[in-house]
Amino acid sequence: MKERFTTLLNNNRLVHAYLFEGDGNELAMWLTKQVFCKIISDEPCGECSSCRRINVHNHPDVHVIEPDGQAIKIDQIRLLQKEAAYKGVEGSKQVFIIKQADRMNPQASNALLKFLEEPFQDTLSILIADKRDSILPTILSRVQTIRMDVSNSLEREARSKGYTSHKSLPILSTVMTSIEEFEKHQEVVDEWTALIRATFELSQTQATLSVQTAWLERFTDKSTQLISIRLVQSYVKSLWLAKRDQKNPWGLASRPNYTWHELLLMQQLVDELGRGFYSNQHYLLGLEKFFLSKPAV
Domain 2-147 belongs to what topology? Predict the structure, then answer.
């Protein structure tokens, strides 16, 4: 991946915006240093003034945005737009890194969309998100997505530590980004995935009842509720893969009984579910709306 970006840089062919899906923080910092490093090489030197200041988050032309509380808010994107309107302090280039971009609230998402539609010259925007499912499709259409190989590495690490009996490891690898998160919940994760699978197979009324009882008993705080939302997103993505006769982490049978139109509707619903969670929509209400609105099996 680094060789690819080095070639793009050397040929002045970087696009104006990228989405690093997965654990993209290291690559984002490497690319940023490569943009500003004063030593022309295939690797940033790490020793020049630019590299050192980027390492300590003190470079005037590198702007990093992270969630303010539960979400990235519109004022943060407006500040990004304001900074981009000016030339770089030490040159013409500026780099904007948006961490946890899947946690933008709807107003911030719309503001970022406008920014990406009309990019300023000599700016590079790097969005980093665990999963792209909660990002507006219109934003996704204006960035180049780079998928980091996080899922497989997490599964390999878990198995190397002796977690070989967890049937849900391939699924969890699509929603968790660290072995620490997995280990924290490893005693209940198989139960979680079994609950999500069973709920999808229920009628709308029965699924809503399950959410009101079993889900609230198991997903009791923000962190576990977020995992449950990601599991729902992962299940819907697997339905798409199964419809195309492709292998999927949930092991769903090929060609499920959903039409393409129904899958598109479900994708829209699950995107709305994710955005609502990051905008502090009530957890229970969001899930009830999803299962009441999704097409019947």
Answer: Rossmann fold (3.40.50)
